[in-house]
Automatic annotation (TrEMBL):
Region span, Disordered: 108-133
Name of the molecule in the record: Uncharacterized protein
Lineage: Bacteria, Pseudomonadati, Pseudomonadota, Betaproteobacteria, Burkholderiales
Keywords per UniProt: Signal
Signal peptide stretch: 1-19
Length: 133
């Protein structure tokens, strides 16, 4: 197997994961990030118009997916595509990518869980019960 082809896949995967992580919180975010391949995943850190984010992602070829956390504590998931080119003669590559995503968890969003009545509590009176005889 061609080691440059393997490196290209990792770099493209890193580029697209970072693009996805940086472009997630605000759909029109622009930024810069770096990804480090660690086995089958890439660990990334980025800074963009949406703030600082860190995450993990993986991909196949130019397509990648990732999950990250931004400085506001939001957990964001996304997907993207990217490409890279070799820089110099070593294993270093430069890449670009585009991605999209969504907020999976926001600690500042009020909970939408149903309210469970406490044991022994009386239900509120209905309109019919409030009419005097």
């Amino acid at each position: 197997m061609n080691k440059h082809r393997v490196g290209a896949g990792r770099a493209a995967r890193s580029a697209c994961v970072l693009a996805a992580l940086l472009g997630l919180g605000a759909c029109s975010s622009v930024g810069f990030g770096i990804g480090i391949p660690v086995g089958p995943v890439s660990l990334g850190v980025g800074v963009g118009s949406g703030g600082v984010s860190a995450g993990v992602g993986t991909g196949v070829g130019p397509v990648g997916v990732g999950v990250g956390v931004n400085q506001r504590g939001q957990v964001i998931g996304g997907a993207g595509v990217g490409a890279s080119v070799p820089v110099g003669g070593g294993p270093v590559r430069a890449g670009v990518g585009v991605g999209t995503g969504t907020v999976l968890y926001d600690p500042n969003r009020p909970s939408t869980a149903p309210v469970v009545p406490q044991a022994g509590a009386r239900p509120p009176a209905s309109a019919a019960d409030q009419i005097a005889p």
